[in-house]
Amino acid sequence: MDRFLIKRPKLMIDTCKVPASVDDEDHVKSGTELKTNELGQCEPSSREGTSDDIATLTHVSDSCSGYFPSYWKKEQWLEKIKEHEWLVVGKGDIGCRACKSAGTLGPLKSQGLKLSREWIECRVSCFGDTDEKKRQSIRKKIFDHKTSIAHKRSLEICEAAKKEHIEKATARQESAYQENTCRVFRTVYTLAKLNRPFTDLPVLLNLQSENGLDVGRVLQSDHSCADITDHIAKSMRRKLVESIISEDLKIGFMIDESTTVSKKASLVICMKVVFPKSDEASSMFFVLVQLADTTASTILDTFLQALYDNGFTREFLSRNFVSFATDGASNMLGRKSGVATLLQEMFPDIIVWHCSNHRLELAVADVVEDVSATNEMKSFFDKLYSLYSASPKNQAELQECARALSIRLNAVGRILGTRWVSSSARSVRAVWQNYAALVQHFENASKEDTS
């Protein structure tokens, strides 16, 4: 995956201006300019240089072996270049690539210390009437320059610049990677908030990519979406718990058993807390955990372990855990060994509350059993529900009547079944709001039957 790799920095291309006096049958022509490629080999360039260009040679190979001072033999010069990699040659004279690259000593400069212009501009020449004396003189100049403090500091500057370049390239690559990851995370968070399936993630990321946004090449599957959602949820819970503990807020919990689609028992844990800037308690889903079984002891252990795993401590709960609500099942509110009873033994100050919604459901169920007249109403709603849910024709005719009367239809459901009382209330309200359309449809249907 190339976006996780740091791209190799482009090498500096140095040009070799070939003097007209140098004779090389392969490459040398008067005024011809060569450049060194990434392999260190010299290649002809179509651009013509000027007479003032300085010839440099970063790496000497057989393909550009003709470029060296005339008083050196080829093998001697190659050996010298291997020993001193900073040597460059131009117009028969030599110079220092490190000093030229540094330019100035900057903060490393001290009194009486500066870089030599001759070494920077490749104007270091030899003296003597024979090649041996010329080589001897240039060796001494190379040695003196190599051991000079200015040259050593220029080498330090070049090494620091090289290291800084790599560090900046790494930082840029890391910054781009983090930005791409943030874009994916924001997309996953939006899907979770909108209750969209995880399989929507690849489609949305492809759309963003088509619109010109870089979203990288990883973390784009539905499995990654599930993992990222879980990671975001854990991070949000951790921050929430840290905020509650740091501000020492009072908390309460509501729990209820449930069954997953795969028929596994689970425990739903919700939390209530009053934040400092709010006058009312905020209720929020906290976590969903799987149950090994539905006994009171297992539910209690699973509940407490879920709290501990998310950052709460026994000490904090002893001080700030003030209320506990659940349904009226015997394993929850049993007087001897229910979850609430076991919790009160551990936290004596908590207030146990039988869930108001469950109590309302139980009260309605008792009323339905005692008042037989409700059976007729229940039967009427069941028939009404079957009439329209099982017949697209009747549903279409009802829609026509509602459109003619400018009425917005609401879905009619069953009442007084296994669902919450609120669903029954919605069904009764729907019939009341649809009443005119229902009457019109019944009248039209009766006319059709008589005709």
Class based on secondary structure composition and strand pairing: alpha+beta
Question: In one word, what is the shape?
Answer: elongated
The pLDDT mean sits at: 78
Spatial separation of the terminal alpha carbons: 75 Å
DSSP summary, beta strand count: 10
**What portion of residues belong to β-strands?**
5-15%
Number of helices: 16
3D structure, described in words:
It is a single chain. The protein is of the alpha+beta class and 451 residues long. The protein has helices spanning 74-83, 97-102, 117-120, 131-147, 149-193, 200-210, 222-247, 296-309, 314-320, 330-333, 339-346, 356-370, 374-389, 392-404, 421-433, 435-450, and strands spanning 15-17, 33-36, 42-45, 87-90, 93-96, 251-259, 265-273, 282-290, 321-326, 351-354. The longest helix is centred in the middle third of the chain and has 45 residues, at 149-193. The protein is elongated and about 130 Å long. The chain starts with 14 loop residues before the first strand and ends with a helix. Residues 1-66 have low confidence and may be disordered.
